[in-house]
Amino acid sequence: xxxxxxxxxxxxxxxxxxxxxxxxxxxxxxxxxxxxxxxxxxxxxxxxxxxxxxxxxxxxxxxxxxxxxxxxxxxxxxxxxxxxxxxxxxxxxxxxxxxxxxxxxxxxxxxxxxxxxxxxxxxxxxxxxxxxxxxxxxxxxxxxxxxxxxxxxxxxxxxxxxxxxxxxxxxxxxxxxxxxxxxxxxxxxxxxxxxxxxxxxxxxxxxxxxxxxxxxxxxxxxxxxxxxxxxxxxxxxxxxxxxxxxxxxxxxxxxxxxxxxxxxxxxxxxxxxxxxxxxxxxxxxxxxxxxxxxxxxxxxxxxxxxxxxxxxxxxxxxxxxxxxxxxxxxxxxxxxxxxxxxxxxxxxxxxxxxxxxxxxxxxxx
Length: 365
Known about the structure:
Elements: H1 12-15, H2 19-25, E1 42-49, E2 52-58, E3 73-79, H3 83-92, H4 97-104, E4 111-115, E5 118-129, E6 134-145, E7 148-153, H5 162-169, H6 174-177, H7 180-215, H8 219-239, H9 242-251, H10 259-325, H11 340-361
Parallel strand pairs: 3-7
Antiparallel strand pairs: 1-2, 1-3, 4-5, 5-6, 6-7
Helix pairs in contact: 7-8, 7-10, 8-10, 9-10, 10-11
């Protein structure tokens, strides 16, 4: 990739801003939730069986209630979070009040809970904002019940589920022929696969930054290292707990997960373990980049000190000669000689030349 293509990743002002640090670390789960409610919600419903598909967009949350017990598989995706609407939804679909609190929470740690008659998981979808070079998160809650899946997300205008929608529209796809547990697997798998896209973007930035540090190290390079380390913290914080979440689906004894579907969750588990290892590798690379930066800075300082030492050594003979012949004594060698100045100047020139020859012969520079 051309170097100019990387320039869009960097916002100079954001490199020296500490607000990002506050956003990352100032998370206190004991503080009461203060979520800004969405002005509007979007409810998308995919109601299907192997031979039939109904795709519907609803304006009211109550319109989704008939899909609970219609003998089809129903995927109800709610975009936008409003407490009143979610209370109605959770009450109708028998979702425990504690799970509703998790859905309404902010900066919740990814988790999986089993509260009859549903399975619940909460995690974050990750996006990479290329304009400012940051990892953005969107909390999503997934509820698996008998013949239905509820997905509640914060942003109604973006998600990573379009490939799933396309597969549902295909008559003989695996999704259409399988149950709600397989749909739940597909949603989790798509979220985890998108983690790799985000990590790929971060990997490109690390690669470009490494090249820049090798060529020239400056304060901007150090600022970019710190900015990337913050994004890796966000990445690691959201990716690492998903391993336990997926493991919960593998180990559950719930009748909502068929035995033949468990192997698919094991595939997600393998992917998330690999994602964790990749995130760890990126963190090690950032530590190595910081060491590389410090080594380059020290190398430059050594080069400067070396040049200054050589210049000082080369000027030493001239300083000595000038000091001797500048003393206020009446009797000094050649002080009244008409060629005295030229002899002193010649010595000042010849001595450094000899020193340069000796230094180069010894390989000092």
